[in-house]
Amino acid sequence: MSVEALEKNKTIDLRKRHIGPSCKIFFSHDPIKIVQARGQYMYDEKGQRYLDCINNVAHVGHCHPDVVKAGAQQMELLNTNTRFLHDNLVMYAQKLQATLPDKLSVCYFVNSGSEANDLALRLAWQYTGNKDIITLENAYHGHVSSLIDISPYKFHQLSDAEQNQFVHVAPSPDVYRGKYRADHPNPASAYADDVKDIIDKAHKKGRKIAAFIAESLQSCGGQVIPPMGYFQQVAEHVHKAGGIVIADEVQVGFGRVGSHFWAFQLQGEDFVPDIVTMGKPIGNGHPMSCVVTTKEVAEAFMTSGMEYFNTFGGNPVSCAVGLAVLDVIVKEDLQGNALRVGRYLSSQLEQLKRKHPLIGDIRGCGLFVGVELVKDRVTLTPATAEAQEVIYKLKEQHILLSADGPHRNVLKFKPPLCFSTEDADLVVEKINFILTELEEAQGLKEHGSPNIETEGSKRKLLTDENGHQKHSGLIHSKGSDQGAPRQFKQNKRLKT
Ligand SMILES: Cc1ncc(COP(=O)(O)O)c(C=O)c1O
What we know:
- By secondary structure, this protein is α/β, with parallel strands linked by helices.
- The protein has 13 helices and 15 strands.
- The strands form 3 sheets. The chain has a 7-stranded mixed sheet, with helices on both faces. It has a 4-stranded mixed sheet with strand order 1-2-3-13. The protein has a 4-stranded antiparallel sheet with strand order 11-12-15-14, covered by helices on one side.
- Strand 2 and strand 3 (49-52) form a beta hairpin.
- It binds pyridoxal-5'-phosphate.
């Protein structure tokens, strides 16, 4: 029996008519219709298999049978809200807490990453009595109004006048392309000192800091791995100023980084955020999310006198799903798999870097890996169009990958945690082939060779993953060379 209710053209037609045009689709000139998925594979209406390298929501694998069964069984019994006693709620809270440091002991269950971060801001405002928020350059924390305000990934097109006065943007702690790089003697302190400067300037204007919010590893911001010790020092400055620290683990939590269950733990045991927000992988596709905080913050929230009620958050079905996800992570040692396969993937990519001048940087932890493409390893000119070309060509080879970061030149790996070394080999082999073709077409030479322009061999590249010359949806243009004429200058300084 076909799993497709409508023919593809009809689906496209109805989507155009009834779905908001700002809801973008991958590869809009030739979108993929996915009708089924299992593990790390997705299938289109013709049964064509795609290797999914990007879906961090399907954390334990698409449609994992244990998760599906747990949700279905609970749905047959009961689904209601948290105003009734239910074992699933408390058992899930207890099990989730066991993955966290003791201090983080109180949960609020909500329905999306945006809801979690919005609630985190309310908690911070209530606990501190302050208003101002420090966020990172290129950060994205969600789609609701309060979060667009603190998401430079979205609001950076606004003029200074339009930007909210209570929001302060600190530099992204990116040691590859950022303000302080790997050759800086102490990038962690330098980036943390910038946060302190922001606090001092805000104080001079009579403003007070409620919170510093950051992803433990920036994802949309370009797969950025902050230097060790950064968060400890930021926390010290923020706490001194009366604020608290919110770690957004919506993309990076639940064992993805391999060595730890939570990405903030990469910084060491001496860093514990005051609030952790979770989403995407928490329900393996079931819409649920969570805010975990300290007793002190939760008690301060209570003193406002306002009840916190959330119709769907923490319902018995969501909690059954959440429990099943935690069980599968342990039963199938998916955190261990993330560590092993992540290391393997990174090492294979490192080998590609030695060969391909277009690869500027490989960075990652576990199955959270970024490959930054540059036209020149000295100037770091982003290879935006080339990254989009790679994505597009991989799609033709039935591999789904995306490119992100402020210049949209970072290939992002964040697959389901059941990703295998064979999957890694397949995608690396295809990228190798595509980069070789691209470099040949551009007159770039492989390892050790100068970067020579060959007029006749230049060819036109796509500028976004949807195959459009002009990118129309995501706000990413600032600082990007998207659509700019490409010039492949002779560069004898090319290092490998
Ligand atoms: C880091 C981060 N935080 C929060 C969100 C918002 O989550 P949701 O789309 O579930 O509201 C996202 C979504 O992409 C995200 O990447």
